[in-house]
Amino acid sequence: MKALVYGGPGIRALKQVAIPTVSRPTDAIVKLTATTICGSDLHILKGDVPETGPGAILGHEGIGIIHDVGAGVSKFKKGDKVLISCITSCGSCAYCKKGLQAHCLEGGWKLGHEINGTQAEYVKIPHADYSLYDVGPLAGKVKDESLLMLSDILPTGNEIGALNGKVEEGDIVAVVGGGSVGISALIAAKTYKPALTIVVDFNEERLRIAKEVFGADIGVNPGKVDAVEEIKKLTAVQNTGARAQLHPGVDVAIEAVGIPQTFDTCQKIIAPGGRIANVGVHGKPVDLQLQDLWIKNINISTGLVNANSTASLLEKVSTGVLDPSPLVTHHFKFDEIEKAYDVFSNAEKEKCIKVFFTFD
Ligand SMILES: [Zn+2]
Ligand SMILES: [Zn+2]
């Protein structure tokens, strides 16, 4: 089969490799029908993720058809259409029972990280019963472009952004960072009916897409205005009552970049009682303004996706509450994956949010 193989920092190639086979009773082999590229694949390619070594097949998102199952797999059989979760979960360890599947003792982020991933014609999924979702009943009802967004980025935006940030009806929500995960957080947050959504990004095209395609109310470009002052002005007008006039700000600030400056913006725009939900992957320390935050009763949350909201997101997608399909901006054949990596690596210039691969 063909697979995208990591060859060490800066090196990737579409290669012929052996089709995986069942080695443990709980394994399933899935024949991919759709896959995509994630920002974390680019981190691996840069050499930022040392546990992923040369020879690894990348990718942790996908849709496919069950090709083979081990004797211990009870929920799936050959021919079933499945959504692959980016998080592998055994379903029975102490972390899985706590809803912390990201830290599953036999799972977590394994695919395309510690074991071969989904940028291939076939992939082996350990603990298949808890790491796959049956999407056969949605065939013909929900676009595969929507389903594929539920492997990783929508659960991430929902769990680490909207749910950790406790977005409630009537809230003012700012998403700082308008890339694919920021937009996913926006989409997820909007299902909880906030009164106002603001997206902050330096890129005008991203702001346009956030507003026109995904329904953000306001785009703020820190390259053109002082984003903190602008948001304080906006929220002072939108809020009602004396308190709001004295302490303008947002109820929920979702950080979706992962650099000190964007975290700082969140600290400066948060209103008393607000929640800062950090989604971005940080590579260095931030300057935590605890002396200002404590007296404003601010909560800060962080996390790696558990992908335990996937079933509820599938429900929202199937009933039309949620349509993440416009996140897919580019379609490719799987054979074109090397070209697609070039496009995705230049996402801003190429106006690319997510790519979608089909297989022959
Ligand atoms: Zn990912
Ligand atoms: Zn577990």
From TrEMBL:
Known cofactor(s): Zn(2+)
MF GO annotations: oxidoreductase activity; zinc ion binding
Coiled-coil residue windows: none
InterPro entries given in the database record: ADH-like_C (IPR013149), ADH-like_N (IPR013154), ADH_Zn_CS (IPR002328), ER (IPR020843), GroES-like_sf (IPR011032), NAD(P)-bd_dom_sf (IPR036291)
SUPFAM superfamilies: GroES-like (SSF50129), NAD(P)-binding Rossmann-fold domains (SSF51735)
Alphabetized UniProt keyword annotations: Metal-binding, Oxidoreductase, Zinc
Enoyl reductase (ER) domain ranges (all copies): 12-357
Protein family (similarity comment): Belongs to the zinc-containing alcohol dehydrogenase family.
Family matches, as PANTHER family: NADP-DEPENDENT ISOPROPANOL DEHYDROGENASE, ZINC-TYPE ALCOHOL DEHYDROGENASE-LIKE
Protein name: Alcohol dehydrogenase GroES domain protein
Source organism per UniProt: Cyberlindnera jadinii (strain ATCC 18201 / CBS 1600 / BCRC 20928 / JCM 3617 / NBRC 0987 / NRRL Y-1542)
